[in-house]
Every structure is written in C-alpha cells, then in structure tokens.
TrEMBL record:
Occurrences of domain GAE (ranges): 702-817
Membrane keyword on record: yes
Superkingdom classification of source: Eukaryota
Cellular component annotations (GO), alphabetically ordered: AP-1 adaptor complex
Key words of the record: Cytoplasmic vesicle, Golgi apparatus, Membrane, Protein transport, Transport
Compartments where found: Cytoplasmic vesicle membrane; Endomembrane system; Golgi apparatus
Primary location recorded for the protein, binned into one broad class: membrane
Assigned protein family: Belongs to the adaptor complexes large subunit family.
Topology in membrane: Peripheral membrane protein
PROSITE patterns: GAE (PS50180)
InterPro entries listed in its UniProt record: Adaptor_Complx_Large_Subunit, AP1_complex_gsu, ARM-like, ARM-type_fold, Clathrin/coatomer_adapt-like_N, Clathrin_a/b/g-adaptin_app_Ig, Clathrin_app_Ig-like_sf, GAE_dom
Name of this protein: AP-1 complex subunit gamma
Species classification: Eukaryota, Metazoa, Chordata, Craniata, Vertebrata
Amino acid sequence: MPAPIRLRELIRTIRTARTQAEEREMIQKECAAIRSSFREEDNTYRCRNVAKLLYMHMLGYPAHFGQLECLKLIASQKFTDKRIGYLGAMLLLDERQDVHLLMTNCIKNDLNHSTQYVQGLALCTLGCMGSSEMCRDLAGEVEKLLKTSNSYLRKKAALCAVHVIRKVPELMEMFLPATKNLLSEKNHGVLHTSVVLLTEMCERSPDMLSHFRKNEKLVPQLVRILKNLIMSGYSPEHDVSGISDPFLQVRILRLLRILGKGDDDSSEAMNDILAQVATNTETSKNVGNAILYETVLTIMDIKSESGLRVLAINILGRFLLNNDKNIRYVALTSLLKTVQTDHNAVQRHRSTIVDCLKDLDVSIKRRAMELSFALVNGNNIRGMMKELLYFLDSCDPDFKADCASGIFLAAEKYAPSKRWHIDTIMRVLTTAGSYVRDDSVPNLIQLITNSVEMHAYTVQRLYKALLDDISQQPLVQVASWCIGEYGDLLVSGQCEEEEPIQVSEDEVLDVLEGLLVSNLSTPVTRGYSLTAIMKLSTRFSSLNRIKKVVSIYGSSIDVELQQRAVEYNALFKKYDHMRSALLERMPIMEKTATNGPAEIVQTNGETDSTILDTKHLPNITQPASQANDLLDLLGGNDVVPVIQTTVPTKPASAGGELLDLLGDLSLTGGPTPTPAPSVPMSQPPFLLDGLTSQPLFNDIAAVIPPMTAYNKNGLKIEFTFERSNPNPNIAVITIHATNSTEAEMTEFVFQAAVPKTFQLQLLSPSSNVVPALNQGSVTQVIRVLNPQKQQLRMRIKLTYTHKGSPVQDLAEVNNFPPQSWQ
C-alpha cells in the first residue's frame, strides 16, 4: 500500500477546493484511505493518519472512528505517538463515552514515567477530560506530582488538581498538605497555577476558606508576592507593556477579594498593598487598566477603609474619560453597583456620567441613564431632571419608555414643589407620551386632583398643549379629564401662576368634539372626551349643545362609547335631578402605593383596570351557571333562567348541560330539550337603577322568620329573608350553609330555579368550602322578583365533594313564610 500523504499536503489540497462540495469530496476520499489503513493495523503511519483526522475534526467533519487509534498511540512507547494520541483523546473523547475509561491505566503509567514531558502529557489530558471515576483513581498520583521539586510538573499538577476538585469536591482535603509550600516557589508559572488552585478551594469550601485565613496565614503571603511584583525591576521574561506579570497580579487580587470578603482582619492586612497597587499602576496601557479594575473590585468587596473606597471610585471616574468604549462601559457598570453604598463619592463624578448620555454607543448610553437615575436626590433633582429631559428629547425610541418611567419615579420621590412636579410630568407626556407606562395617566390625574391650588394653572397648561398636539394619547386623556373637571376655571380665567387666557365655552367644546372625531384618538381617549363633555353640562351653560353631542354617540359603532352615551342620555332624561350631584368634582384621592398605581376605584366614570384595587375581591371558585346550564326544576316550560352576577369560571360543555332536577329527562337518549335563551347579565340593566338615598333593606326585615330549607347528610341550608326597599316586590333571601360532619365539604355549589312567573338572581357565594363541625358557614344571596305576589316555590340542587367523593342532591322548598311573598 502506498504511503499516505502528509498533513501539510492534505491541508494544501483542501485549501485549493473552490466549493464546499469539492472540499467534502476530498475529505471523504481521505477518510476512506485512513479507514483502510486502520483496518490493516498499519503502525507505521498511524500517527500521521490520526493527525490528519484531527485536522478534519477541527473543520467540522466526523472523526469518531479514530478514537481507538488514539488509545493505541497513547500505549506506544514513542513520545511523538503519545503526543498525537493524547491530543486526539482530548479532542475526540469525553466522559460521556465509555471508551475514555480504557485509557485510565495508560495515564496512570505515564504519570509515573521517568520523562517529565510524558508526565506532562498525562497531566494535561487528565486535567482536560478526566471523568469523576478517572479523577478518583488518579488523584493520588496527581498529589505526589504536586509535591515534586520539578516546577514544570508542579504547575501542570496544580491545574490538574483544580479539575479533580471540580469533579470530586470531597477529594479537596487530599491536596491541602501540598498547598503549604506552593506559594514559596519562585517560578511564576507555579505561583500562577497555585493561586488558581487556592482560589478554587476557597470558593468551593467555607471550611477551607476559614482554614487559609487563620491557620495558613495566606493573606500575608499573597501580599508579599504582590508587593514583590510591584517593586521588582524590569524582567523581560514576565514583562507585559512595562508591568511585571499582570496575569499573576490579577489572579492574586481575585484571591484576596475572596479572603477579605466579610473578614475584618484579612481586609486590614491587605489595605496597604491595595492602595499601593491603585497608585503605582500605569494607566496608559490596557494591561494597567485591567489590574486597576480588579483592584477596584477587591476594594469594593472587602471591608476596606473609606479613603480607599473613595480612591477606587476615583479610578472608575478616570475610566470614564478613557477613549476605549469597553473601559467606559466597565466603569459605568461598576459605579452602578457601588452607588448605593458610596453615594457621595460617586456624586463627585456626576458631570462626567451625564456627559456619557451623549455617547454614540447605545450600551454606554443605557448604563449612563441607569446610573444618572441612581444619582438623583433631593439636592440635585432640578439639574438632573433638566439633563434627563434633554436626553429624552433626543434619545432613540428604545430608551424613551425606560427614561420616561425613571423620570416619573424620581419626580414623585424628590419633587421640590407640586407645580414643578406637574410641569415635569407634562413635559414627559408632551415629549414621549406614547412610550409612558399604563399607570401614568391615573397617577397624574391623582396628582392634579390633590393639588387644589394648581387646578386653574394645570387646566390652562393642558388646554394649550391640546391646541398644539393631539397625537400623544396619554396627554390628551389627562387634558380631557382636567377640562371636564375644571372647565369652569379655564373659562373664567382665574389662573394666578401665569397670564390667564381668554377661552369661551364653545371653544372648549370644539376642542373636545374634535377629539371625538379625530383619527388620532383611541377608543379610550374618545371615552375620556365624551365623559368630559358630559361633566361640563354642570359647569357650562351650553346644555343643548352638550345634549346633542351625547345623543349622537348613542348609536356609535364603538360599544363602550355607545353605552356611555346611552347612560348619559338617561341622566338628562330620567335622572336629571341627580345629574349635578353625580357629576360634581372629584374629592382628594388617597394613594397607598409609593411608586405604584393609585388605588382609584372610579374616576367620574373612567374606570381603569390597571388601577383597580383587587386585594379585597372575594376568591370565587364556584362555577357559575351558563345560559345552557339552566335547571328545569319544576317541569314543563315555565322555568325562569338563573341570572348569575359572576363571570363563569369554566366554559360550558359542547353539548350543553341541561339538568332536569325532576329526573324526567335522559341526557343519553330521546329528544334533547331546547336550551333556554342566553341571558348574559353582569350588572343591572342600567347602571343608575337603584340609586337612591334610602337604605337598601327596610326595618321590617326582622319580622320575616327564618326557615330550614335542607338538612341532610350533615349539610344544613337555612334561609333568612329581607325585603328590598326600592322595590317591595323583590325578596332578598340569604342562604347559610353549615356542615356538622368531621370533614369539610369542598367544591360546594348551590343552584336554584323558580316558576316562570318569578325572576331569580343568584349573587356570588362567600366561599366554595363549607367548614367542618359547624365552625363556619357559606353565605349566598338570592334575589327573587315576585310582581304577582304568588306563593313562592323553589327547587334547589346541591353539589359538593365530601371525603373525596362527589355528592349531588335535589330538594323542593314549598314552605316559605307568607311574609316572604305577600
């Protein structure tokens, strides 16, 4: 068989390929030749073939068929074969493949070899891809080599020990005796790897960290080595840009940071050397900046003196003036971490930080913006807000949302006056209104409402802003709300803070009507505008014009706008005597959250889901009856659907769940009855129905005696009665469900139906769990309308789970007290 081509020739041939397909063809041809050579057990060229295979592996082609050949090369006595074999093992093998266990014995033999270079190859391989099993088997040999006098082997053994500790942490104590003399070595390679080993041990074991702090006195040794590095003269072997072995210095500083964190004695021992490094390191080259950066991190992490911390922050301040963008970014990130603990020291570099807002690099801009907000306090709020508002005007859209949010929070926390606060928020809404948070509108409305003396000034400023620009929807919404609330102040010209403007009622209404028809207005904005026009009906004299506008939108295709208009029309007609009271000015609102949305339940008709207080809503898990879940309780077609006031928590099944409580209906066969018509109703037919100054229930409620409607299997249902004052035909029944058994009843659902001549409405239950042993009760309110004063009849259905078993029962209630229906 002819001799295979050399590696250099293969590389030259592959580089001549003009297409990927041509390269792939060359690789496949060579792989076939290599496979043939492997099958023939050709020992002469095995090393050359494996070397070519490794090159193909580096190009991304499969080379797994050479794994066993690597093991054969490792077992060879020739150094050149071992070198390629170990290199192949590190590239082609890992601990997920069982083949690597076959080389454990070869590595063990080579670790005891008489040639240091063979031992070095074995240490490198074990430190690169040794599994936990291999590390356990060979840790003893590594520990012996760690104690040898040969510096070449000691540095490799130290790195191998790091890998062993990562794989098998419980072997850490084995290497503890060998670490005692490592730092006394003068060879920088051994020192470097020793510091890496000590760092790994301290990070992985608190006991080791405590041992090195107290027993080994590690800090003084590291301080001595670092001092020698700083004070030593020029050494061509270790010099990098005029600095002696910066890599070793960085490693020592990291280890000092671990040793000094949370320890007073260790921190005090290293304060002087850290100050020397910070003052003596040259900053003209990047190497010096790397050492200074590690020094700063160490100073900030340990319990250092205040003067030393100021020195560290000044170093970061100098970094901000560097032309290198990476150094500036690192400085801003580090200052952001330290600003909470050393606020005053960072404040000295405020002007430099603000200048970074003008940087062209977006990552530097973002870090500078975050740091600028962190520096804002009561003393510099005006100056910092001026710079940040200027930045908001000119920054990219990606920054506007975060910047606007930060300005809102800072202004809320440190505002020197309410006028300044309102002006700042309005400036943000004018500049970046489309990017602000959802809660900015209700927050600003609350701020304006609570600033009673600023009402005239605010409504005038907002009116002017509306005349200039109506594209910023949050600004338009706030302006509409304020004009609706304080339109009379705008027209009367009572502003004292600035020169009042002369505005007529028709001009104000023209602006609001323009918002209703503008293509820029969102549905929410139109709702604000229509409500504002309605509120002006009690503040302006143009009542006929307002009525006309409101009536027009009673047929709007926007359902929300249409509902508002219909209800406002009803206010003019049916409830005109209550209109002035309903539309009076909002009282001062209380705000409980500091930096969150206010707990505003309703703002003159403007209810916002983002500001509703949901903490006090009951936890309702009862599945409400759907329209197709109606109960045919009394037979025939005289069944009244139950109107639920809660949103159903589970969807109706596809075929419907018509329940015939009398048992006459089979759900599996026979004709299916037609479901009752859907009556979706989440509120009374009109929002203002029932508004009255009288109490809801009258005083004769106590005359109607209670009754027991159901008492079976430990479950007792009692009815108590009240009569509704606004409508005496409505009987209000409160059910009280109690449980006398030893186990609670879960998933409790009460359902009821009445004849067609009645109307029944089930309100939400207090819970869906009936406590055991009568330790509590579930209550639920039923409202029954009985216009014909007929005797009340009801069929109820109870479903619940008791001791893991579902229970379902039906009952008929006919013995209602006469006072409840007469």
